[in-house]
Amino acid sequence: MTDLPRTRHSLLVRLKDHADADAWRTFIDVYAPAVFAFARRSGLQPADAGDLAQDVCKAVAAALPAFDYDPGRGKFRGWLFTVVRNQLKMYRRSQARRGRDGGMDVLAEVPEDAASETWDLECRRRLFAWACERVKPTVAAATWKAFWRLAVDGASGETVAAETGLTPAAVYLAKSRVLAKLRDAVAEVDEG
To answer: What is the DSSP string of 55-79?
Structure first.
């Protein structure tokens, strides 16, 4: 699995200021859906996964003012994963106490490697979706379609050219330009 980029230090500094609405919107747009998806993959129902995502955001907001980011100790995303796992464990324990565990072993641990890989995958998916949401409105519809069909769907350049009315060279140029814009969008949140 390729290494994920680290969360930008500038975003982490901005998150310490609870009044920085733009930084918090970015954090929530990128990470809350990843928490939600991870919770769903961990067996939570949609409403419970949404509650867990909110609990994680509250825990992060409470912890960040005292959080000192040290890249030598690991990635921010790793620290966030620890918060997610702890919130998930607390949720499962509360459900078990209430007898609402649905018969599952609520305290059973997911192997650390599997959970970490699932978390990384969810973060990667969400970061890509977040970048696409920002880039798609900035390019022509044919350019976006050419990029998507070529880079995501895996269609051939000739097929995409026929579908879009672009030349094969223009199709590859569209892919390259959209990828550059996606990298720039990701760089707003992550450092390479």
So the answer is: HHHHHHHHHGGG----GGG--HHHH
Predicted confidence (pLDDT) per residue in 73-100, tens digit: 777 788 889 899 989 988 888 887 777 6
User: Could you tell me which CATH number the domain at 139-192 has?
Assistant: 1.10.10
CA 17, CA 2: separation in Å to the nearest integer?
Answer: 32
pLDDT in tens, 127-154: 999 999 999 999 999 999 999 999 999 9
* Right CATH for 1-129 from 1.10.1740.10, 3.40.190.150, 1.10.720.60, 1.10.10.10: 1.10.1740.10
Beta-bridge partner residues of 159: none
Closest CA to 133 of 57, 51, 188: 188
Q: For the packed helices 168-189 and 21-41, what is the interaxial angle rounded to 10 degrees?
A: 100
Contacts of 177 (CB under 8 A, 6+ apart): 139, 143, 147
> How many residues appear in the chain?
192
Q: Give the separation between CA 128 and CA 183, rounded to whole angstroms.
A: 9
**DSSP letters for 115-167:** HHHHHHHHHHHHHHHHHHHHHGGGS-HHHHHHHIIIIIS---HHHHHHHHT--
